[in-house]
């Protein structure tokens, strides 16, 4: 087996890699959020803003809670940049869907 691949034993190394990727994605999202919050309407415009939106939306269905959390936080920052209203709708739809899903999942009998 190649070094670092775990030799295919039990999948634990793959889980470790997935956790590392989730932490890395979370970190990148938080930096993106900081950049968005630093100067709304300034630094990210046009293609770069579209690219940021695409990345955030690409990760919205991630299974890792840390990534889902960073997506939600970044959506709020992204929506402040949105002069044309292109991002607010999809971000709001995702957030409302998540809130409804969590409410249904947490609702007990009667």
UniProtKB/TrEMBL annotation:
Stretches with biased composition (Gly residues): 1-11
Annotated region (Disordered), positions in chain: 1-20
Give the top-rank taxon of the lineage listed in the UniProt record for this protein: Eukaryota
**Entry protein name:** AP-3 complex subunit delta
